Structures are given as structure tokens and as C-alpha cells.
Amino acid sequence: DTGTSGYDRYGFRVPAAVICPYTKPGHVSHVVYDHASVLKLIERMWNLPPLTARDRDAANPIDDMVDFQNPAFLDRPKLAEPARPWVLGSQS
Predict the structure, then answer these.
(1) Alpha carbon of 59 to those of 30, 50, 55, 66, 89: distances in Å?
(2) Most CB within 10 Å of its CB: which of 5, 21, 41, 70?
(3) pLDDT tens sequence across 2-30
(4) Per-residue DSSP letters for 29-70?
(5) Rounded to whole angstroms, how far apart are CA atoms 34 and 12?
(6) How far apart are CA 47 and CA 85, in angstroms?
(7) Whole-prediction pTM value?
(8) Exposure letters 13-35 (e unless 16+ CB within 10 A, then b)
(9) Backbone φ and ψ of 23, nearest 5°
(10) Would you say 24 and 72 are in contact if contact means Cβ atoms under 8 Å apart?
(11) Residue 40 class from Cβ within 10 Å (0-12 exposed, 13-18 middle, 19+ buried)?
(12) Measured CA distances, 78 to 73, 75, 86 (Å)
């Protein structure tokens, strides 16, 4: 926290995907997030104090993307078999 005190300037954009059983299917968020947004969600869920001014003041939690009451799936989805089996050391 020795940099600027406002955290009001955006840097480069970092695309992200939230993938877990609790992600809302098909949801696209239009909220601006920060690198500390996941930390902010964890702090809110477990009533923890903020670690820094950045997660206290600037970060939006990612709670609009997740629904912890209604998971999208409880069992792991079955994936298709690979077209070719992977073999250690093969190069093609």
C-alpha cells in the first residue's frame, strides 16, 4: 500500500473466467473487477477483515457470478473420450 492512495486508475485489462460448480450458467458480468475481487468475496463470506486498503475500498466481490445455494452441478460432468489417446513421449 505504498503507491497511490486512491486506486482510482485502471491498468491493463485482464480477461478472466470463473469456472466452478457454483458459477451461474450463461452469466456474463458487466461489473469492473480488481485483482483483489476474489479476496473481497472470501472476506465477505467468512466475515474477515480486509487485508489491504485495495480490497477494502476498490475491489468489487465476484458474488454476482456465483450462486452458493444452487450449484449448477453436483457431480462432475462426463467428458468425451479424446480422439487420440495421449502417450508419454510421443511426438506427432
Answers:
(1) 14, 11, 5, 16, 45
(2) 41
(3) 665 666 666 667 777 888 888 888 888 88
(4) --S---TTHHHHHHHHHTTPPPSSHIIIIIPPPSTTSB-SSS
(5) 11
(6) 47
(7) 0.61
(8) eeeeeeeeeebeeeeeeeeebbe
(9) -70, 140
(10) yes
(11) buried
(12) 11, 9, 18
Question: Nine-digit cell at 81?
Answer: 473420450
Residue 74 has which C-alpha cell? 453436483
Q: Write out the three cell numbers for 9.
A: 486508475
Q: How many residues are given for the chain?
A: 92
| Lookup: cell for 84 | 487420440
Nearest to 39 by CA among 59, 24, 21, 58: 59
Q: What is the rounded end-to-end Cα distance, in angstroms, of the chain?
A: 49
